[in-house]
Amino acid sequence: MSSVDEIKQLLAEHEFFKGIPPEYLARLTPHVILESFPAGEYVFRAGGQATHCYLIRQGQVALEVFEPHRGGSIVLHTIDRHGVLGCSWLVPPYQWRFDARATQLTRMLAIDAAAFRDALEADHEFGYEIIKRFLAVFTGRLSAVLLQMSDMYA
Amino acid sequence: MSTPQQEKANKTIYRIRSVVPETPDTATLELVRADGGAVPDFAPGQYNMVHVNNVGAAAMAICVHPDAPDVLLHTVRAVGRVTEALCGLDAGAEITVSGPFGAGWPLEPAEENDVVIVAGGIGLAPMRPLVHALIRQRERYGHTTVLYGARTPEDILYRKELERWRGRFDMEVLVTVDRASRDWHGPVGVFTNLIPRAPFDPYYAVAYIAGPEVMMTYAVEALHRRGVRKDWQFVYMQRDLKRGVREIATCDAEKSGLTGPVFRFDEVEQFLAARE
Lengths: 154, 276
Description:
heterodimer; A: alpha+beta; Jelly Rolls; four-stranded antiparallel beta sheet; globular; B: 276 residues; alpha/beta; Elongation Factor Tu (Ef-tu), domain 3; Rossmann fold; 2 domains; seven-stranded antiparallel beta sheet; six-stranded mixed beta sheet; 9 helices
């Protein structure tokens, strides 16, 4: 079992929360649990309820889409240490759009999505700070996807 | 009387010793001189003109394997008339080679600094002799990292050699692919994702970059964001190589004043962004 202080420390060490005021982290800490996923285990499946926001501390998770005509799942993207896994918890209908599978032993901080949304709604300064950080994640991913789509090595 | 440059341009007949398949559309030609002579000295990053009878010529990065210095290696991707013709040749066939041409990778700036090698697709070909050179005098250079991006796991060039480099205890090799099936356990995503996590000191790092131009542009920006100076980044300009091919083909190499295919990035930044 991890203490509140340990979780607060782990949140502060994660790249996503780098430099964020400690009082903001203190608000989130009661809603965070540590989770581990062995290699091969699914963190979530497409269509499932997005109940948590996951921050990867160690390991790697593959975002996959199942393509029956290709006979299985295709890996679209991998996220590793200091990455944010999934944003579907932030926007309705709060459902995962892809499968997420640990490709190696992966340890994460899981923040309760409903509590996180409530905290962002209750304090717009905090909310704006977090949304800016997510926007950086989104734009980074979008640029990456566009580059991948350009098939630049062809 | 011929100039040294014209002398170098003299054509030499090579015999294909073997054709080593690398990826579905790429192979490495192992060539030995038909007259039994040695492969001329070259600097990593320089290129040869490889001629195919009645088809044309193509510029190709020069490499030799450190254990077999008399075997010239040219990695060919079948994307045009000449390269398709080359890929269709079998062992025993003879081809004409001239060179070496162009400016190679400058190694002096890397001495006592960390080295970051960023390659995409067939851009690993001109990097191979550079890595061999770094390994040969390993003590001169700081932490060395090779970052390589390919389209799929099947398109990874020199896979065994990358694994060997990775197996060394003094070198980091990170590979990512744009898409993969579940059999691939490495990273999937754009190559720039590798740059923030690569273990080098950005304030004492020299970067060498080769690949498609769009990839090089993003690589330079990502390295710069991490703190690597733009004037410590060197790029391998295929576009310049193509122009060089045209000029060499018309025996105008000396007049062209070409210094590529390797350039310091800040010297060609505008040119890289320009459309041809």
